[in-house]
Design a protein that fits this description.
There is one protein chain. Helix 1 crosses helix 2 (15-23). With 240 residues, this protein is α+β, with helices and mostly antiparallel strands. Helix content is 22%, strand content 29%. Bound molecules: uracil (URA).
Length: 240
């Protein structure tokens, strides 16, 4: 693949901009300067730099973001900054077939919710993860306004009816951590689901953090606002 096309595929701008970056000497490949925009490389595992910044080639981008509070999972936020501003521009500019460029969040978290958020430019992955048929468990750490009790936990596990659907929704698991903290596992992703489920049992969510998707946990290694590439092992964990 030509280096200009590699850069283009990774979100470094239009084909013309990418050719210019190479011709103007802003690119190194495998540690060596490369100013021939038509030079060919095997992109798989390729390490290159653009204006001194290293970028590993990824055919598809799978990203883990530690979403901070006070950010919206929307490209066009209404009140708070968009989570997309936390990502470097190549991730936001990766060319896509549709009208929207770059990686997209896999589902959404509320502006005040923190924690594990996946983003990708792989439409099939988004579809698979969002499909109710796949039941990928998501773990939420919930802080409540009122003390938790056995009756609330039993109701959350046996199913509560929300206002938009007569079919009850239930938690796949529900562990009381202490009087005001609950670890709730859901396999669906309805709008405001955790907040509405807690309201349905007479409590109220004061804080919400997503700590796990499938077998993938968010660790302290990634501070709020930071992101990293997902590894092949992470992708297996997500499905386990
Ligand atoms: N449930 C909610 O209520 N809010 C979220 O952000 C995620 C799950």
């Amino acid at each position: 693949m030509q280096i200009q096309d590699i850069l283009y595929s990774q979100g470094f701008g239009t084909r013309r901009v990418c050719a210019g970056l190479v011709q103007q000497g802003f690119v190194t490949v495998g540690g060596e300067p490369c100013s021939d925009s038509a030079a060919r490389f095997d992109p798989e595992g390729l390490q290159f730099t653009v204006q001194g910044k290293p970028w590993p080639y990824h055919e598809k981008a799978y990203i883990l973001l530690h979403k901070p509070a006070g950010t919206e999972c929307s490209q066009k936020p209404s009140t708070y900054p968009s989570i997309y501003t936390l990502l470097p521009s190549p991730l936001r500019l990766r060319p896509q077939k549709g009208p929207v460029q770059g990686v997209q969040a896999v589902g959404r978290l509320d502006q005040d919710t923190t924690g594990l958020l996946l983003l990708t430019d792989d439409g099939k992955f988004i579809h698979r993860m969002s499909s109710p048929r796949h039941h990928v468990p998501k773990v939420y750490e919930v802080t409540t306004k009122h003390p938790l009790d056995d009756v609330q936990v039993r109701k959350l596990l046996s199913g509560v009816v929300l206002d938009d659907d007569p079919k009850p929704v239930k938690a796949a698991a529900c562990a009381v951590v202490d009087d005001f903290h609950l670890r709730l596992t859901l396999t669906e992703g309805k709008y405001h689901q955790v907040k509405r489920m807690l309201a349905a049992v007479g409590n109220r969510v004061e804080g919400l953090h997503r700590s796990q998707i499938g077998g993938l946990e968010l660790t302290e290694a990634l501070a709020p606002g930071q992101w990293r590439w997902l590894t092949a092992d992470d992708l297996v964990l997500i499905r386990s």
